[in-house]
Amino acid sequence: MLFPFLRPSLPAPEKWVYFLDLPYEHRYFSNFGPLATRLADQMRQAYLIDGYDGALCSSNTAGVVAVLQALDV
């Protein structure tokens, strides 16, 4: 098989469901909600160089399209 199917290994819900407490408390689940903001901050600290900015995208395709549009391609 040239490209084998890779089955994701998912953690049990009790390992991640507590992440939903903050969004439910604030009633904000996306676009500048508490988890999206936290993720953006962590990604910025881990991967970006001072003076550069990043953006969260819903998919890799959306990110590539945004970059191409920004470059006027």
Structure description:
With 73 residues, the chain is mainly alpha-helical. Helix content is 42%, strand content 0%. The chain contains three helices and no strands. It has helices spanning 21-26, 34-47, 60-70. The protein is extended. The N and C termini lie far apart (36 Å).
Strand composition percent: under 5%
Biggest sheet overview:
none
The pLDDT mean sits at: 88
Q: Structural class, from helix and strand content?
A: mainly alpha
Number of helices: 3
Provide the succession of SSEs.
Answer: HHH
Helix amount, in percent? 40-55%
Report the C-alpha radius of gyration, rounded.
Answer: 17 Å
What is the β-strand count? 0
Principal-axis shape: extended
State the separation between the terminal residues, measured CA to CA: 36 Å
Instruction: List low-confidence stretches.
Output: none
Concise synopsis of the structure shown:
With 73 residues, this protein is mainly alpha-helical. The protein is 42% helix and 0% strand.
Notable features of this structure?
73 residues, mainly alpha, 3 helices, 42% helix, extended
Produce the secondary structure layout.
Layout: H1 21-26, H2 34-47, H3 60-70
